[in-house]
């Protein structure tokens, strides 16, 4: 058997170094893609946030009206839902005969505006109906609005029914 002599192979320049990391071109392309995606996504995200703020305030007012009506029925007394204008606006739910010193609930919202079509107070009697001879005795509309998110209406009938109105 013949012995084969091994000759050491010299490394070619650059063979010993493996490429690690990214090239400048790869980084620039990645950053460009991220910027394009952010440019498309941010306006949609802002619109979604405005709509969510409006829905949150709308649902808060809706729950306040339902609370006022159910408290009137439960307590067998007149209970008022009062809109306090301002920035930010707020509402109060309180027993009408006792005055507004000790409200059942007071909430402040982030909305720009809340308006009640006929005054600022809705009073529910012991049966959950609207008290006659008040601003809202024949029914009224409460509007919750935001500058950037539109507005939503809440319909209150003369019988005290609270429903979602058109926007």
Automatic annotation (TrEMBL):
NCBIfam families recorded: IV_pilin_GFxxxE (TIGR02532)
- GO annotations of cellular component type: plasma membrane; type II protein secretion system complex
Q: Which InterPro entries match?
A: N_methyl_site, Pilin-like, T2SS_GspH
One Pfam family name is: N_methyl
Sections of the chain in a coiled coil: none
Major location category of this protein: membrane
Q: Does the keyword Cell membrane apply?
A: yes
**Keywords associated with the record:** Cell inner membrane, Cell membrane, Membrane, Methylation, Transmembrane, Transmembrane helix
In Swiss-Prot or TrEMBL terms, this protein is called Type II secretion system protein H
Q: Return the similarity comment.
A: Belongs to the GSP H family.
Instruction: Please list every transmembrane segment annotated in the UniProt record, as residue ranges.
Output: 21-45
What GO terms in the biological process aspect are recorded for it? protein secretion by the type II secretion system
Look up and give the membrane topology term: Single-pass membrane protein
Where in or outside the cell it occurs: the entry states: Cell inner membrane
Q: Which residues form the General secretion pathway GspH domain?
A: 59-158
